[in-house]
Design brief:
CATH superfamily of the largest domain: Periplasmic binding protein-like II
Number of strands: 16
Number of domains: 4
Strand order of the largest sheet: 8-7-9-16-10
Oligomer: single chain
Distance between the termini: 70 Å
Shape: rod-shaped
Strand content: 15-25%
Helix content: 25-40%
CATH topology of the largest domain: D-Maltodextrin-Binding Protein, domain 2
Length: about 375
Amino acid sequence: MRCELHPENANVTEHMWAVNLFRSTISVAYEANLAAFDQHFSLTRSTSYVILKIRVNNSLGCVDTYSALSDTFFVSMFDLKQLRCFVAVGEELHFGRAARRMHMTQPPLSRQIQLLEHDLDMQLLYRTRRSVTLTPAGTVFLQEAKRLLFHAETAASTAQRVARGESGLLTVGFTAGASHDFLPRLLTRTNRSLVGVNLVLQEMVSEYQTEALKNGQIDIGLLRSPLNRNVYEAVCVARESLLLAIPREHPLAGGKMPALHDLEGEPFIMYCPHQGSYFHALVEGLFRTASIPTKYVQQLSQIHSILALVNAGHGIALVPESARILHFNETVLRRIKLPPIYAEIFLAWKRDNTNPAIPRFRELVMKHFALPTSHAAMKA
């Protein structure tokens, strides 16, 4: 039988087709229990095609096979069954005991070892009527075979754990503000409860997280902005008051609790309307509702940058309560009389995200962190 592979410059797919045909022929020969089996590897190749030739010698009852291999691409022909047979013989150093261990008779076991040695083009065992010992090459290959079998046997269980959500990766976007308090608590709980699930963190503002969630760049968003509930599932996990950040020597740094109208005419460090849109809208809404004119001297996106300017005496600001963890020596954070309004943090993910780890992550979040959603978030 002659089988030609076309077209020119046979590729890897063609090689694998040839290899599969070759292995099928070997399998048929074994099933027929042919007395003699001789395997040779060689390449017959022209500039236009690679040829797989299988020649059957009926008089000898054997099969001579020529596998299609390129001069730059090597296909390893041994399989896991051959490796398991070799490991059994290499550890037992006795074909009878190895055959019992493999739940097979000795002749098929011997054929598996012979085929493996042909595949590798080396002798792995010294055989006499009384003993079986490993060759130097066989000693080295025994350790490598064990390693390959270990990885092969753990591959399936690893994949199964990932499919069940017991293992895998979750890419989490987070805002700088969320890292002050909530994110460390989330990581601690996740590491304790979701062993095998690794969180890969990416810091980005809420607006960028929304786009990253949409495009699948992140699995989870830890962000300020509420999202479209038809596309995303969002859980409120933190809710905090706003504090007045003020230079230590400012008159409002001491005395009775200040009110919002006390900020009128003060140089105010505001949030950027683009990269800090959540806080910009929140604070702007407070001033507008109270009809207090504003004097914005700077507009920044990050809370620590705003506090740095307050610390330097350039103005005052309103910041979330979690900013207490940021220590600026010349800045005082104090409560201020405000309407019942809060800064919220949400954990969010796309409803159609197929990452198997998300259901278990969601269960953890709902059990340990979920808060009632505010009316404003419900309307989003």
